[in-house]
Every structure is written in structure tokens, then in C-alpha cells.
Amino acid sequence: MESNDIVNTVHDLSNDEKLLIIRLRDIGGSSSVEDLSDDVFNQVAINRAVLGLESKGIVNIEDSSRKLLYPTKSGKALIESIPERIVAEAILGTGRKDAFIDELNIDKATAGIALGWLRKRGWATVSKEDGRVKITITDKGASDLSKSSWISEALLQMSSRDYFASELTIEQFQTLKNRKAIEIKEEKERNLTLALGSDALSSMDLRIREEVTQLTADILRNGKWRDVDFKRFDVSIPVKRIYYGKKQPYLAFLDELKTEFVALGFHEMRGPMIETEFWNFDALFQPQNHPARDWTDTYRLIRPKKGYLPDKGTVESVKESHESNWNYSWDPEKAKNLMPRAHGTCLSARQMYKGVQSPGKYFSVARCFRPDVLDKTHLIEFNQIEGIICDDSLTFRSLLGILKQFAVEIAEADKVRFYPDYYPFTEPSVQMSAKHPELGWVEFGGAGIFRKELTAPLGVDVPVIAWGLGVDRLAMFKLGIDDIRFLFSDDISWLRNEVMI
After folding, report:
1. Percentages helix, strand, coil for the chain, rounded to the nearest 5?
2. Strand, helix or coil for residue 455
3. Would you give the distance in Å from CA 2 to the centre of its chain?
4. Which has the closest alpha carbon to 467: 272, 199, 259, 261?
5. Phi, psi (rounded to 5 degrees) for 41
6. Is the peptide bond before 420 cis (omega within 30 degrees of 0)?
7. CB neighbours (10 Å) of residue 481?
8. What are phi and psi of 379, to 5 degrees?
9. Beta strand ranges found along 8-156 (DSSP E)
10. Within 13 Å and on the Cβ side, how many CA atoms surround 488?
11. Do 146 and 152 touch, CB atoms closer than 8 A?
């Protein structure tokens, strides 16, 4: 480092950085962070100073780690007695190299453990004769048994001092690990070395003066600024990233969606997630024998099974609409069945029953439930954006324009297309799809103009356009993901880094 560079570098040093250079210089230029730290200059302050000095080329860092070993409860037991050694020594004590296990005065638990380790360590062979277990000590076993046990010695030392994995062979380490005799604790160490020579260090002004982080009027007035060091902040130094608290991306999207609808003058509709078939189907002019009301397409509540119907006049109007148009006998008991709502349209029926304004705009973000096969675009639980607009001037063309605006502005879809469709409660009806860059064309949901057979029994006499769109799929477009299940992911990286725009 040139002399001018040294002068400029010293000018940029903080007090902690100067103190670290002094300490390293005074002990020969190299030391670990742990040895350098004390009550005045702790490891946190040292590591912070090290980052600045490393970026300036003054200090080199070398990180290393070593494994400390401690005996477990099982390991401490092995210090006193090793099962295979007990059995083997008992056999050799008979003056022979073989014996039947039941001849030895050894408890079953010890014998059972010993058999496996006698074979693994090559100390003995195990065979059966007339249903009895026979153990024969090998030459290796006899040789090893004549020596002290390395297992007991190693575990004993672990109990009395710092014992490192490097003191064992790979085979010995694996043996103790397999026996669950040791607990392993990794100890990390950071060693620091001065990168400057003695000449460069002697030319550096390492005087430690009061450090000031902010220039104030008092400092200027009393002239203190001449005798202090102003702390410099190097914004290029890498620091630990802080992840601030924020909403889950999908929940943030739902809140944004609600905000946009309210800004457009819509009123939010609310209702229960557990609904009667009356509001989920009958009030929407869906006949009771329709296949969509079968157990394969909807869930049912087991307990309680029945709910309550609204006032008698509304029930009679709905019944008359069904029987005169669908030509069957409407059953009020079936209409009382409780179910998790299958779509958000039941909230539109409830809203019309409570009363709507003309002109009037209403929406809801409703949690819905349907039996389905889980895949990249389907869930059994999903959110649906439900909306209705009531006005004498509305046409089917008005509905298509609103749907296209949703897809383009809210979901940011590139292309939108419509298909003729059928729903019992709308006529005409349409299905909307939008193009996803990864998945291709994705169905968003259905829409249409409510039939008079639906609106009249609920007391509404103006045209009502309605839609029910999959919010989860809208979110897929907005968040740029290609699997609907990922909306509920616990992937911490995605949750931290996803930003709602």
C-alpha cells in the first residue's frame, strides 16, 4: 500500500478499527477473534471492525471450524463397561475360545447388544448349534482384548477436557457415532492477520480520539470539531439483511383487490361460509335434481345437518318459480341442508334478498369449497371474486367490457377471450379465460345476466349482471407463479422476497 493510500485509509478508520489494528500489532500481527475480545472490546465489535478493515485490505480473515465431542448418557455407561468386551472376556475366562451364550452368567440385555458388536468389530463369529447360540473368539478379538479399550479411554478424556474429532481416526469416530456414544458440537473460529508490514504500520496515525456521528450546532460553536473524529459510514460493507414484517403476498393481493373495488364504488357483501342449499342453489334457480347438487360436486355438513329458511313469502316465491319453470315438486327439507358454500354467488342472492339499489354495485371475496383433484390450477378450497351490478341500462356487452377490464387491469393478462356457457341462474352466460405466459389459457370463471326467474322471487325488478371469478388464478397472474398451490406455500425465500407492486 502506497504512503498516500495509507494516509487516506487511516483518515477513514473508526476507533474500533484502530483499536483492532493496535491489538493485532502488539501481539505479533495474528490472533483469533476469541483471544482478542474482552469486556471492553467484545466479539461483536471486533467482527464489525474486521469487515471494514478487510474491505480496506488491512486485515485478512480465515474462518475455520472444528468438532468438539462430548459423551452422551450411553457413552458414559461405556466408560465402565463395554458389552462385547464383557462377553468376550467371560468366554476367554473359561480357558477356551468358544462358549454357548446361555453358559455365561450375563444378563440378556448385555448379551444381545454384545452379539452385534462382536461381529461388527471382528472379535467373534456367532453360530447356532441345536438351537443354542455359540460364540467363537477370533484371533483379532483375542489380540484386541489384550489391550486397553480405546473406547473407554476416549470417552473418559471427553468427560474431563475439550476433545476434538480430529483426535480420532475416521473409523473410530464412526464407531462412537453409530453407538450413539457421542454428542457433536461444531465450534467456529475466526483468525485475523494484519496484511500490512511494520513500515506501513509505523507510518499510520492510530491515535484514538472521540468519535462523533453527527455534526451539531454546539460542536461548531465551541470549536470541538477540531479535536474529534467524524465517523465515516461505508455503505458498501456487507451487512446482515433484515427482513421486515409484511403481509403474506396472497393476502396482500386480496386486500389490494378489495381496495380497488371499493374505490370503484362497490359495496362489499358478506355472509356465512356454512350455507343452506336454499341460498347456495334454490334461490339461484338451480333445480334440486341438478347434477351439480350431487355429493360428488359439493360437500355436506354431517352435524348439524339442517339450517333455517328465510321468511315464508320468499320461500313460496322461490318454490313457485322452480315448480312452474322446472316442472317438479320442490322439497323445502332438501333446501334446509347445510353445506360449505360452493360458490360466492350465494352472497349475491342474499344481497338481493336484503335489498339492492338501482344503480348499485356489490362485490365479495368469498372462501368456497368443492371436491376436486388437486393440481397446478385446482384446489378444494379457493377464493372467488363475486360481483353484481344492478341498473336498467345494462346489457350483455356491458358485462363483457367489465370482465375484460378486470383481467387486463387487475390480473395483468395479455389476452382475454370469452366462450358461450350455461349456468342455471344466468341467461345469456359466458366463460372467461385469460392467457398466462407459462400455463397458456386459464379459465377464470363464469358470468352472465341473472334470469328473471331468480331475481323476481327475491324482489328485484331490474337487470342484474353477475360474475364469479377465481381469485386464486387472478393472483397467479399478478404474482407470476405457475402453480396455484404455491399461493399457500411456506417457502421462506418466496415469502420474504415477493413484493406486491
Report:
1. 45, 25, 35
2. helix
3. 51
4. 261
5. -125, 90
6. no
7. 21
8. -130, 160
9. 30-32, 59-71, 98-100, 124-129, 132-137
10. 11
11. no
Here the cell at position 203 is: 507510518
Fold (CATH) for 73-175? Arc Repressor Mutant, subunit A (1.10.10)
For residue 27 the three cell numbers come to 501481539
Model confidence pLDDT, tens digit, residues 400-448 = 988 888 777 776 777 889 999 988 899 999 998 888 776 678 787 889 9
Are the CB atoms for 45 and 165 separated by under 8 Å? no
pTM for the full predicted model = 0.55
Question: Residue 88: which residues within 8 A CB-CB, separation 6 or more?
Answer: 114, 118, 123, 124, 135, 137, 141, 145
Residues 6+ apart with CB under 8 A from 238: 51
Q: Residue 12 above 80 pLDDT?
A: no
Asked if 94 and 81 count as a contact pair (C-beta separation under 8 A), the reply is: no
SS3 call for 321: helix
Distances (CA, A) of 208 to 7, 14, 279, 401: 15, 9, 79, 72
For the chain, how big is the Rg over CA atoms in Å? Answer: 40
Query: Does domain 3-64+188-230 fall into CATH 1.10.10.10?
Result: yes
Stretch among 126-130, 164-168, 412-416 having the lowest mean pLDDT = 412-416
**What is the pLDDT at residue 3?**
47
Confidence band of 9 (pLDDT split at 50, 70, 90): low
**And the C-alpha cell for 254?**
386480496
Domain ranges of the chain: 3-64+188-230, 73-175, 251-272+341-497
Domain 3-64+188-230 and domain 73-175, same fold? Reply is yes
194-247 pLDDT, tens digit each: 888 777 777 776 777 777 778 888 888 888 888 777 776 667 767 778 888 888
Cell output for 497: 422476497
Most confident region among 151-155, 296-300, 304-308 by mean pLDDT: 304-308
Strands 267-268 and 360-369: parallel
Alpha carbon of residue 88 to chain centroid: 53
Nearest to 386 by CA among 250, 257, 478: 257
Terminal Cα distance for the chain, rounded: 47
The burial of 260, by beta-carbon neighbours within 10 Å (0-12 exposed, 13-18 middle, 19 or more buried), is given as middle
Neighbours of 410 (CB within 10 A): 20
Q: 251-272+341-497 has which CATH code?
A: 3.30.930.10
Report whether 450 contacts 466 (CB < 8 A): yes
pLDDT in tens, 300-347: 999 899 999 999 999 999 999 999 999 999 999 999 999 999 999 999
Q: Alpha-carbon distance 7 to 90, whole Å?
A: 78
Cα dihedral 264→267→268→274 (10° resolution): -140
